[in-house]
TrEMBL record:
Record keywords: DNA-binding, Transcription, Transcription regulation
Cross-referenced InterPro entries: cNMP-bd_dom_sf, Env_Response_Regulators, HTH_CRP, RmlC-like_jellyroll, WH-like_DNA-bd_sf, WH_DNA-bd_sf
Protein name: Crp/Fnr family transcriptional regulator
SMART domains according to UniProt: HTH_CRP
Pfam families registered for this protein in UniProt: HTH_Crp_2 (PF13545)
Top-rank taxon, per record: Bacteria
Entry annotated with the keyword Transcription regulation: yes
Family matches, as PANTHER family: CRP FAMILY TRANSCRIPTIONAL REGULATORY PROTEIN, REGULATORY PROTEIN YEIL
Gene3D superfamilies: Jelly Rolls, Winged helix-like DNA-binding domain superfamily/Winged helix DNA-binding domain
Matches recorded under SUPFAM superfamilies: cAMP-binding domain-like (SSF51206), Winged helix' DNA-binding domain (SSF46785)
Protein's UniProt keywords contain Aminoacyl-tRNA synthetase: no
Domain HTH crp-type stretches: 133-206
Length: 220
């Protein structure tokens, strides 16, 4: 799943060509560290292709805040690291120049704010997860959020997940093994089915909501 990509796609489609032309373009390999905390110079980045992981880290641990999808903007003026998870095409512009450009394109602000707000929303949800939910509860919440973008099928709600178990684990502050084990348990207990790669059907959302509130361990 790419969380709420529609706003990003609208932003990319609405970006005026003269403004796009002022961005510098780069093609970067998977694993490339795009930006680190207190990076200079301060830039606005727009992802055109690929996927970028936004995370915070210290000497012992990394915590993923979000994955940027094509069309999304981010600033290097944060305390986060940005790394290409896949080969990327990236546009960049000095922040001051971008701010001046926005003054000439007032309609763009309404498209930019939802994209930037998604990162903040996920960061707040991650803090709540780490403070109040075990890994099973975090995974249940993740799937319930994904279901909002899913499509109804006779068995339930079908969701496309283009994140691997390892990438989901990074978003949840867990290990890949734990997430894989929990997904298998959900499938075994009839909460979900996985009819194809990158496809998941949520069969019992009411049970996932109970897991979200901490009942998974009690039922184990």
């Amino acid at each position: 799943m790419s969380p709420n990509p529609s706003a990003a796609h609208r932003l990319a489609a609405a970006m005026p060509e003269p403004l796009l032309a002022r961005f510098a373009r780069q093609r970067l390999p998977a694993g490339f560290l795009v930006s680190a905390p207190r990076a200079k110079p301060d830039r606005i980045l727009m992802l055109r292709e690929g996927r970028i992981r936004v995370f915070v880290a210290n000497e012992d641990k990394e915590l993923t805040l979000a994955y940027l999808v094509p069309g999304e903007l981010f600033s290097t003026h944060t305390g986060a690291y940005l790394r290409c998870e896949r080969e990327c095409e990236l546009l960049s512009m000095p922040t001051a120049e971008f701010a001046r450009s926005m003054g000439n394109e007032p309609g763009m602000l309404g498209l930019i704010m939802p994209v930037l707000g998604r990162i903040l929303d996920h960061s707040i949800a991650l803090i709540e997860d780490l403070a109040f939910r075990d890994v099973a509860g975090r995974l249940a919440r993740f799937l319930l959020v994904a279901a909002r973008q899913g499509s109804r099928v006779p068995q339930g709600v079908q969701v496309t997940l283009d994140l691997s178990a390892g990438e989901i684990a990074q978003l949840l502050g867990a290990t890949r093994q734990t997430v894989s084990s929990l997904l298998k348990r959900m499938e075994r207990e009839g909460l979900i089915s996985r009819p194809a790669r990158h496809q998941l059907v949520i069969l019992q959302p009411e049970v996932l909501r109970r897991w979200q509130e901490g009942e998974a361990a009690e039922a184990a």
